Amino acid sequence: MIIELNMAGEVPIYVQLRNQIVMGIGKGELKVGEKLPTVRQMALDAGVNTMTVNKAYQVLKAEGFIEIDRRHGATVRPAEDVSGAFREKLEEELELLSAEARLKGVEQSEFLALCEKIFSGMSPEWETV
After folding, report:
1. Residue 17 CB: number of other CB atoms within 10 A?
2. Dihedral, CA atoms, 33, 23, 122, 94, nearest 10 degrees?
3. Which domain holds residue 42?
4. Could you write out the DSSP letters of every residue in 6-55?
5. Is residue 2 included in any domain, yes or no?
6. How many domains does the chain have?
7. Per residue in 49-78, pLDDT tens?
8. Cβ partners under 8 Å of residue 98, min gap 6
9. Backbone Cα Rg of the chain
10. CATH at 67
11. How many percent of the chain have pLDDT more than 90?
12. Backbone angles phi, psi at 115, to 5 degrees
């Protein structure tokens, strides 16, 4: 998986890194049980500080996407059942995206088609274990 970060963008680097890893998992580029690079290696590969990678890994751990073991490093976790908290976050973010789309003149059918296209691009192998 290739990580592409926008160093001049407004989104913090650790958030970009987190998002890239989540996308990699969702698209099946990273499989359950697959080891992620060490913090040092990821920092070297991405050209960022180790603290930035560590922060991204800690966020991913807190969100349940990876597990971290001192002996084995960071690995991709099996999917969990969608909790009420995640559904609430999802609804809030979709509501904001829907509002922005409507304000920018995107038709409902176009918005839903785009959602379907993106969602269907995610790996079908990524299922709740």
Report:
1. 23
2. 130
3. 13-76
4. -TTSSS-HHHHHHHHHHHHHHTTSS-TTPBPPPHHHHHHHHTS-HHHHHH
5. no
6. 2
7. 999 999 999 999 999 999 999 888 999 998
8. 111
9. 16
10. 1.10.10.10
11. 77
12. -60, -45
Whether 24 and 69 share a structural domain: yes
Q: Residue 36: which of 79, 68, 5 has the closest Cα?
A: 68
Asked whether residue 94 falls in the same domain as residue 71, the answer is no
**In whole angstroms, what is the distance from residue 106 CA to residue 91 CA?**
19
Give residue 128's pLDDT.
46
Largest Cα–Cα separation, the chain: 52
Tell me the HSE value of 65 on the side-chain side, using a 13 A CA sphere.
19
Give the C-alpha separation, 21 to 12, whole Å.
15
User: Each residue of 111-129: pLDDT tens digit?
Assistant: 999 999 999 988 776 554 4
Note the residue count of the chain.
129
In terms of Cα–Cα distance, which of 78, 76, 95 is closest to 29? 76
